[in-house]
Design goal:
Elements: H1 2-21, H2 29-75, H3 86-127, H4 129-140
Helix pairs in contact: 2-3, 3-4
């Protein structure tokens, strides 16, 4: 444990000597705080986008459930008379309609949120040259 402390203390002394001689310059604290703030903003926006995409995935799953139930009902329709089981089919079709509406709502709201977040990401890229260059490099690959 003392060797690590000694090593860190030695590095601090070496860094102090380089700074005193003018051979090394530390970045400006304002620049670092602005860069950290930008990174935090982008991380927050990307986390929101992941959340929005997961809501969209949930909406697709909710939408698939009534479609599956209706497919099964159609396949087995020759084994029952709809008039005799209407007391079961009515509520089941109502639940399917509700789930369909919920799925469509989740997909629509997640899509709108994703589009808004994409615009925000584009605005952040436009404000920072480093991000703009990075996005251009990623598009090339």
């Amino acid at each position: 444990m003392t060797t690590k402390t000694t090593t860190v203390a030695g590095l601090d002394r070496d860094l102090s000597k380089l700074l005193a001689r003018g051979l090394m310059h530390l970045p400006d604290q304002d620049f670092l705080s602005q860069k950290n703030m930008l990174i935090n903003e982008i991380s927050l926006v990307l986390a929101e986008k992941r959340t929005s995409l997961s809501v969209m995935r949930t909406g697709l799953a909710v939408l698939a459930l009534p479609l599956s139930v209706l497919s099964v009902l159609i396949v087995i329709s020759r084994y029952y008379d709809p008039g005799q089981v209407m007391y079961l089919l009515g509520p089941l079709l109502g639940i399917c309609a509700g789930l369909t509406l919920l799925g469509v709502f989740l997909i629509y709201s997640a899509f709108r949120r994703t589009v808004a977040l994409n615009r925000l990401i584009a605005a952040l890229k436009g404000q920072n040259t480093h991000l703009r260059e990075l996005s251009l490099l990623l598009k090339e690959k």
